[in-house]
Amino acid sequence: MTTNISYSYYNPVETIFGVHAFKKILPTIQKYVQNNHILIVSDENLLNILGIHENLHTLLKANGYTADFFEKPGKYSSISIIDRGAERVRKHQYGLIIGIGGGSAMDTAKCMAILGRNNGSINDYLKKGKSLEKTGVPLILVPTTAGTGSEVTRWATVWDLGDFFKKFSLSDPKMFAKASIIDPTLLLKLPPKMSAMTGLDALSQAIEAYWSKNHNPVSDEFALKSIELILENITKMFHNPSDLSYRTQMALGSMFSGLAFSNTKTTAVHSVSYPMTLHFNIPHGLACALTLGEFIKFNALETPNNTLEAPQRLQTIISLFKTKTAEEAALKLTMIMKEMALETKLSQFNIDENGIEKIIAEGFTPDRVKHNPRLVTKEDLREILHNIK
Ligand SMILES: [Fe+2]
User: Fold this and answer.
1) CA of 205 to the centre of ligand 1 (A)
2) Domain boundary at 162, 186, 210, which?
């Protein structure tokens, strides 16, 4: 038995999980709020769709709070939206921010909370190396997808849709939320296809956390449980979107995925997905799923530029797919995607040779791809993308 185990794992977010957990919003607010002005950040019109806008407003008012609402337009957590939101937080000196929605709404809320107490544009922090000195406004996150895992991570994806036209990440331990409320009933209105794509994002994050060079025994446990839960429930959830039991298992799988990759970051699959989303409008989870099977095959190979342990660890992932080889696991993933009416080829998004070269040119995010267990070269990525042409 080895004694050579040494790691640190850190995640300070209180997670409040369960069917109707959202009813615990008031005591959670009371625990963390610093003054009686509260800002709720959400996706556009989401609170009305979920039927919680009026109830939340009434509840807060009845308990002595003023509630303001900030609805994020569109699907991206963009620089202009975040700067506008941060300005508003500084002006009104909120004592708590609640972010409700998918990954981009929660990431917007995260950035607004930290920038609300740190001056300047988010550009200063992303591009000029300015550091976040002060702690942010206390933050509670409520995911309505399962999901990005953003509710338990210390970073936010920020899209520069201007001249740079690039995906950035703002990351700091001060950006962790105080608490996350994960209520599977809030997932029921999410259309099956969107649920499928966000579920595949969570699956990809968990698999990448498990094979990441940064993995540790704690992240491993969360990652394996997440992979198992998602593979067991994702198609059942797709075919039975109103069934709360599958939604609950997917919510749990997504949270475990977040707890795993909150300490490892993602790897090559996520890195390659960003230009696919930015230039070809492929939703994030689907962009990850498109190359996930190919990277399972790639990382499973014993080669001189792979870590010694990777092929063995890949075997554990392969067995969770209830398959014997990496090829079979990749094929199974393709079948799962087809069963959920998702695209599996780049040509279905009109990505031609030029498009593939664009993805290769922008697909190497150093902070992500360096954690992949096997070194990825441009030639490797070209071959992977041609395999899913
Ligand atoms: Fe992701």
Assistant:
1) 6
2) 186
Name residues whose C-beta falls within 8 Å of residue 27's C-beta, 6 or more positions apart in sequence. Answer: none
Ligand 1 centroid to Cα of residue 384, in Å, is 20
Ligand 1 centroid to residue 229 C-alpha, Å: 17
One-letter amino acid identity for 89? V
Q: How far is ligand 1, taken at its centre, from the CA of residue 147, in Å?
A: 8
Q: Residue 100 Cα, ligand 1 centroid: separation in angstroms?
A: 17
Question: Is 1 among the domain residues?
Answer: no
Query: Can you give the C-alpha Rg of the chain in angstroms?
Result: 20
Last residue of a domain, one of 144, 168, 186: 186
Q: Is 63 left (phi over 0), alpha (psi -120 to 50) or beta?
A: alpha
- Give the domain extent around 287: 192-387
Q: CA-to-CA distance for 108 and 99, rounded, in angstroms?
A: 8
Ligand 1 center–CA 324 separation, angstroms = 27
pLDDT per residue as tens digits for the range 313-352:
999 999 999 999 999 999 999 999 999 999 999 999 999 9
pLDDT (tens digit per residue) in 193-234? 999 999 999 999 999 999 999 999 999 999 999 999 999 999
44-86 tens-digit pLDDT: 999 999 999 999 999 999 999 999 999 999 989 999 999 999 9
Rounded to the nearest angstrom, the distance between the alpha carbon of 202 and the centre of ligand 1 is 6
